Amino acid sequence: MKSLANEFFINMADGARRHQAANADQYELVVNGIRNESDLAQQVALVEQMMATGVDAIVIAPADSKGLLPVARRAAAQGIVVVNIDNRFDREILAGMDISIPFVGPDNRAGARKVGDVLAAELKAGDQVAIIGGNPGAFNAQQRQAGFEDAMRAADIEIVSVQAADWEQARAANVAAAILGENPELKALLCANDSMALGAVAAVRQSGRAGEVLIVGFDNISAANSLVQSGEMLATANQYGDQLAVFGIEYALEILASGQAPADRDTPVDVVKAGAGQ
């Protein structure tokens, strides 16, 4: 997984452990994560470690959509079933490799479009918004930005700034503070994950513009859900993080049992608004 400092991935790990405990006769589970969501070198080292121990399957949420592909290819060539979750590997590069790595996860662009549409309904044409994105090298970051842009374009809302905060709360707080300072007419911040949305909330509070600048996120971690219910955030997207690893594990087990040629599988993503609970 990516950063175990992020509640989303903690929930993912917990969901995987619960699944393994209920299916202990089917497989053994090793859970690994990196220090932060951009530590590509550590994630490569973890995959190599798993290869060296002779695992049968690796389910991976890659920190980078391109940078993890060489080691994933080596793992697949070794006969290990590799299943890609959360952040999709680069399709063009993958197509040029003589391997098959399925993606099991949500349509991030469609999910972000849903969240963006909820925000657009609260704004009017010509209003100004900004996007705080994740790691620019991550496909899910690119797709969520595209989904936000789709929604704003459809509503004729002006995007005055797009900046990356690499999925991190503290960095997002600094980015949001700068955007707020430069754009006094800003009406909303669209954040590509909830950790960054929490940073944006802190920046909006600090600026004295709470209630004036709307904030949306993506992931439905508990702190963000609480802010949605209290009204400090307008909405987030639930991609059922506690089940994402489970979806990948179950597919890996199917492939191991049947030898079937793997194909991508879509998983659900839904908008969470006030009153919608967890």
Automatic annotation (TrEMBL):
Keywords: Signal
Any single biological process term in GO: transmembrane transport
UniProt keyword Mitochondrion, yes or no: no
Pfam families reported in the protein's UniProt record: Peripla_BP_4
Main location class: other
Top-level division of the source organism's lineage: Bacteria
Cellular-component GO terms for this entry: cell envelope
Domain Periplasmic binding protein: 1-257
Subcellular location: Cell envelope
Family of this protein: Belongs to the bacterial solute-binding protein 2 family.
Name of the protein described by the UniProt record: LacI family transcriptional regulator
Species of the source: Kineobactrum sediminis
